[in-house]
Amino acid sequence: MKIGVVGLGYVGLVTAAVLANHDNEVIGIDVSTERVNKLNSNNLPIFEPELGNRIESAGSRLKFSTDYSDLAECSGVFICVPTPNNEAGIDLSFVVAASKEVSKVVPKSELIIKSTVTPGTARHISNLTGMNVTSNPEFTREGSAVYDTEHPDRIVVGGNDPQVCKDVWKFTNAPTIITTNENAELIKYASNAFLATKITFINQMADLCEKIPGADVKIVAHGIGLDHRIGKEFLKPGLGYGGSCFPKDTIALNSYANSKDVKLDIIDSVIRYNSDRINQLVEKIIRLAGDLNDRNICVLGLSFKDNTDDLRESRSIALIENLSKRGAKIFAYDPIVKQYPGIVQCNSSEECIMKCSIVITATEWEEFRSIDPVLFKDKMVFDLRRILSIKPDDITMGVGIGKD
Ligand code: UGA
């Protein structure tokens, strides 16, 4: 089948590369000439494990262009452009603009919306363009997007005639939900909001554990996660959720519900807690470590999560900004992100730790797990990601984030 993908960010590029490895001829469209030129000269614009391999193995079945007319003869076109928030709620202008362009070239093809959009959007786009519009939200995580796309828990397909969308994902053998556009659109928001709630819940349990001698949130999380009704995923306490999806989607869902005169108290509280979490953690560090002015602080990890170079809504960056405002001098090391203004970038975690008296883990990179505990001698360690192999006795004080 000839398939189009509009928008070559994390979602679009991965979708295009995976589909081109499964009997499709795929044309990827992006408005950014720079991005398309990079891709056409075999340079990846983003870091994502396995993506380069999939693009390479797709060979001539995958092409990139800035010209919408290259979509001619596509049976289906995926819309994978951003849906940022604005003051009024979700900004659908990119989705609308891309869909209109597609409808000029292939009005009879299936328009498949992968971008995260509020319920009613597919119907609206169908009215605007006259096209058969299918909703097909994605549930892939950055850092494992290729794996998630090839091995999804489920495929959600919403629409009146979603034949192309159903066919292209058949190779995954995943359970497929065929439903209305609105259900599909809401399943995406409800999933992200639920996961953000789960993270917030465990962060609040971590706050409580830190007040109880003998309590350890990691063990509590393990204990509740073994209940299959709860599940063990997304129970890792940390700096709060970041990235390009959860912060944006929880806010969009909230304002969408408000527009329907429905108050989502739980989501409201999740958003408030998460946006205050960094400040709460810094206040706690100050309580334990004292004034931060002129102190050298080592921050391990800059990206919003491991296995990505994405800094959007990175909790580590929010933490660094907060610490810097309090006069701290920041030294940072990240396995992939090598530049960020206003900080001293180190070449290794070892170099970074040696230069500082306070050490903070901010991103859950695998390599931090094996840092030699000897390096932490005489340092104050705030293992906000709870990944270091140190015991409270190994350091002067403050493993985990330390008891109050
Ligand atoms: C998230 C969802 O997991 C995907 O299913 C969804 O498709 C995607 O958003 C999207 O809407 O496009 P992503 O933002 O890439 O994926 O990353 P996650 O692995 O979900 O992590 C999000 C944030 O939560 C990160 O800041 C991470 O550090 C934090 N997190 C995650 C925790 O603090 N604890 C956890 O247990 C899990």
How do you describe this structure in short?
The protein has 13 helices and 15 strands. It is an alpha/beta fold and 404 residues long. Uridine-5'-diphosphate-glucuronic acid (UGA) binds next to helix 8.
Give the proportion of residues in helices.
25-40%
What is the strand arrangement across the widest sheet?
A: 3-2-1-4-7-8
- Which whole number gives the mean pLDDT? 95
Annotated CATH homologous superfamily of the largest domain = NAD(P)-binding Rossmann-like Domain
Main beta sheet: strand number and arrangement?
A: 6 strands, parallel
The total strand number stands at 15
Instruction: Return the CATH architecture of the largest domain.
Output: 3-Layer(aba) Sandwich
Order of helices and strands: EHEHHEEEEHEHEHEHEHHHHEHEEHEE
Number of domains: 2
Query: How much of the polypeptide forms β-strand, as a percent range?
Result: 5-15%
CATH topology (level 3) name of the largest domain: Rossmann fold
Q: Could you say which small molecules are bound to this protein?
A: uridine-5'-diphosphate-glucuronic acid
Distance linking N and C termini = 60 Å
* Tally of helical runs: 13
Unreliable stretches (pLDDT < 50, length at least 5) are 393-404
**Structural class of the secondary structure composition?**
alpha/beta
- Gyration radius, in Å: 23 Å
